[in-house]
């Protein structure tokens, strides 16, 4: 099994579209670039679909944005599926509002795999705007999934999910090789919350973590996600044999915009086989598995 290569696209959601078909054409072009570079999967950021709102003649009310995007989603996904087959590259289509099982809408990451398999993850940890009944009013997800593809164990969690140690504990039980993190952050602080925690999860879970976020100003047509600052990066455990610092390749630093649809970042092959061998042989510097807190006692004392 060769080590996987990921392509990360910080989509410039502030760039207006003339038609929804233009978004499909951009994804098609990026899949072609990813295939040429030898990537196994192309990952878009959280709410890359917010760019769809730019085709509307007038800005919708905040409460109408999620239902409208959800209405467009089935046709957009139908248009993406043959592109995945044509290019032979899997696609994490960012996250898209779709109907939740218990009613309402979920912020759902959809991963389309060559051959027709599809994997989903509904965001677990919602921002205040996502929970606000006067704004996007989304439903929370309730599960994490690890799926095997090309001999690699993959997981997807969205933005704030990667900041939660409790989510990491559940993921750790499933032993992922690669975690993909689509995100949307408005400020440099938000970018660092997501990306710094992504690096921490790589250390904690002894796996590879790749994160990508939206860039651009879409305040002219979108309430829930207006200003965006992010980049793209891949992280690994901080081991001497992996370059000491836990950063894999040269990340795309955070930015607020781009002159075009946004840059494409191709990872060096992620060292999945090396990490598996280090786990198996016990050759990591200090990591010997996740800490089992079953017998841990927590106390609060007053001096």
UniProtKB/TrEMBL annotation:
<protein>
    <submittedName>
        <fullName>Predicted amidohydrolase</fullName>
    </submittedName>
</protein>
<keyword id="KW-0378">Hydrolase</keyword>
<dbReference type="InterPro" id="IPR003010">
    <property type="entry name" value="C-N_Hydrolase"/>
</dbReference>
<dbReference type="InterPro" id="IPR036526">
    <property type="entry name" value="C-N_Hydrolase_sf"/>
</dbReference>
<dbReference type="Pfam" id="PF00795">
    <property type="entry name" value="CN_hydrolase"/>
</dbReference>
<dbReference type="GO" id="GO:0016787">
    <property type="term" value="F:hydrolase activity"/>
</dbReference>
<feature type="domain" description="CN hydrolase">
    <location>
        <begin position="9"/>
        <end position="264"/>
    </location>
</feature>
């Amino acid at each position: 099994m060769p080590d996987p290569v990921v392509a990360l696209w910080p989509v410039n959601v502030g760039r207006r579209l003339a038609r929804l078909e233009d978004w499909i054409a951009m994804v098609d072009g990026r899949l072609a670039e990813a295939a040429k570079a030898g990537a196994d999967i192309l990952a878009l950021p959280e709410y890359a679909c917010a760019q769809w709102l730019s085709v509307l003649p007038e800005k919708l009310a905040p409460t109408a944005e999620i239902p409208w995007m959800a209405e467009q989603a089935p046709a957009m996904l139908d248009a993406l599926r043959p592109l995945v087959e044509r290019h032979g590259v899997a696609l994490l289509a960012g996250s898209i509002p779709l109907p939740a099982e218990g009613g309402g809408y979920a912020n759902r990451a959809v991963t389309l795999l060559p051959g027709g398999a599809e994997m989903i993850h509904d965001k677990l940890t919602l921002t205040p705007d996502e929970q606000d009944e006067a704004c996007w009013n989304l439903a929370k997800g309730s599960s994490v999934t690890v799926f095997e593809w090309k001999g690699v164990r993959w997981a997807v969690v969205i933005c704030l999910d990667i900041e939660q140690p409790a989510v990491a504990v559940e993921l750790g039980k499933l032993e992922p090789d690669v975690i993909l993190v689509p995100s949307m952050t408005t400020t440099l602080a938000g970018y660092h919350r997501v990306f710094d925690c992504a690096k921490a999860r790589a250390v904690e879970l002894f796996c590879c973590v790749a994160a990508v976020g939206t860039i651009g100003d879409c305040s002219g047509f979108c309430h829930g996600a207006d200003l965006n600052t992010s980049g793209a990066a891949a992280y690994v455990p901080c081991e001497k044999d992996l370059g000491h610092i836990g950063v894999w390749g040269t990340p795309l630093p955070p930015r607020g915009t781009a002159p075009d649809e946004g840059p494409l970042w191709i990872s060096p092959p992620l060292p999945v086989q090396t990490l598996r061998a280090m786990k198996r042989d016990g050759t990591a510097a200090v990591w010997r598995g996740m800490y089992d807190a079953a017998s841990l006692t927590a106390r609060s004392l007053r001096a």
